[in-house]
Description:
The structure holds 2 protein chains of 2 kinds.
Chain A: H1 2-16, H2 19-39, H3 44-47, H4 49-74, H5 77-82, H6 88-118, H7 127-151, H8 155-172, H9 186-191, H10 194-207, H11 215-236
Helix pairs in contact in A: 1-6, 2-4, 2-6, 4-6, 4-7, 4-8, 4-10, 6-7, 7-10, 7-11, 10-11
Chain B: E1 2-13, E2 16-27, E3 31-35, H1 42-50, E4 57-62, H2 71-77, E5 78-81, H3 93-101, H4 110-116, H5 132-144, E6 150-154, H6 162-177, E7 181-186, H7 189-195, E8 198-203, E9 206-211, H8 213-220, E10 224-229, E11 245-251, E12 254-259, H9 262-276, E13 284-287, H10 290-298
Parallel strand pairs in B: 3-7, 3-8, 5-6, 6-7
Antiparallel strand pairs in B: 1-2, 1-4, 8-9, 10-12, 10-13, 11-12
Helix pairs in contact in B: 3-4
Amino acid sequence: MNALLAMYTATAREYLRDRTALLLTMLLPLLMAGFFGLIFEGEQRSAYIPAMLGLGFLWLGVFGVAPPLVQMREQQVLRRLGATPLPRTTLLGAQIGWRLTTGLLQAVVLVVFGTLVYNMHVPSGNWPLLVAAVVLGGMVMITIGFLLAGLGKTNESVIALGQLVQFPMMFLSGTLFPLEMLPSFVGPIAKVMPLTYLNDALAQLMLGTTGLFPLWADFTVMGGALVLLGALAVKFFRWE
Amino acid sequence: MNAIEVRNLRKTYGTHTAVDEISFTVAAGEVYGMLGPNGAGKTTTVECIEGLRRPDAGEVRVLGMTHGRQTSEIKARMGVGLQTTGLFPKLTVREIINLYATFFPRSLPTADLIEQVGLAEKAGAYSAQLSGGQKQRLAIALALVNDPDLIFLDEPTTAMDPAGRRSVWEMVLDLKARGKTVVLTTHYMEEAAHLCDRVAVVDRGRIIAEGRPDDLVRQHFAETAIEFATPKGVAMDRLMELAGVNRVMQENGSTTLLSTEVPETVAALLAFARAQGFRLDRFTVRNATLEDLFLRLTGRRIRE
Lengths: 240, 304
């Protein structure tokens, strides 16, 4: 327990002291939410808050999880830890725990911003499900990060892979453009990307609007994605 | 009791045999050195003993235990200083030691460890800001955090200046005085000779000589070394004919005569040099060293 807490704290410190990661995962989604607020008026201003949270989670997985793991592998930090009795599960638990904390912080920052600045009203009955969607969606994106770290050999290749994942997800999952605006061939692509369902669930729960899919479908797909991606991440994960 | 027993250890990577049937034992309380050039297989051997790599064949017993089910028990009682230090870059010296202390049931006070490795002034600095030598010293502090019975130090002084090297030597001798077992790898023969009770000379995945440093040298060299810069344009095979010379070794621009009759050989060499008209630059008479031993056994120097 002591070791888990210490590893969690260590992971948090490394993250908070790395300006790039902090900027990408915390500040950038907020800045983009502010930017959309300048373009649109009235209720439309808060319409982008859920999508920006989804985007923040995507960046958390692609840039907040994968590169630090690869750096730990490249700099032999994982190997050094492997020479101690620290169980690997503790190491992974601390990693996942801190990334999830980051995701929750992103959610809090954006919800508070939306509520105070854009008069967003999260329907009060939606809070428990919203927290559940944040945790589940966060876990899916973190798992994508672990999978990328396993697939890429070097820091550079992981960042390249991350871009490959990031672009289609960012543009084709209703994050930046509503799916109705995009050509019809995008539909099938959007339907295989977990971010589409996260965005859909977040929009329904935060704004109280009707979504593309029923909530239960969003949760089921995200749960399934978590199991599938989790299995792949375990299969491909490399300690050295 | 033996701290380490290794029998017929073998490790290959593809077609490359990194460790080729290595066997040795290390007694409890002993400082055991593995001396050899980079790529000789020292690190792979040590990492197989630490449980960081799985050998392809052979037996390894550590503190009477074997890897597998007893690995975490072994790891709790050993300390490891890796050649690549493997430090969290954005944590401070103090934070890293405190972190590692939580991995073990028992640990030494962080402040004492920092003091012991001479990093008191850097206790609040990120490990990324440390010099190579300072990182090595932090790695040694981490190896000692659990007050281990058995300590592995892989090339502990490689990035260090002479003062840093001497302070690490003192640390190792202090560990020995406290009854700890130390296994260290090095490619500095002075280091091996100064610190180690016994040395294994490793080359191409094999132990080519093993024993107390003095004995090893004496076993292989009854002679004294007479060394000088190799002069140009002189027929060197004639050196073998000088009085008392048993062997001539030439490498990297220097010539070493191994002689059992030093005064006769020196006199003959001076006469020969005068007759041939060459100068004896960097002329030295010294006892043979582990370096000479390595050169004799392999035809190469340890540091190339």
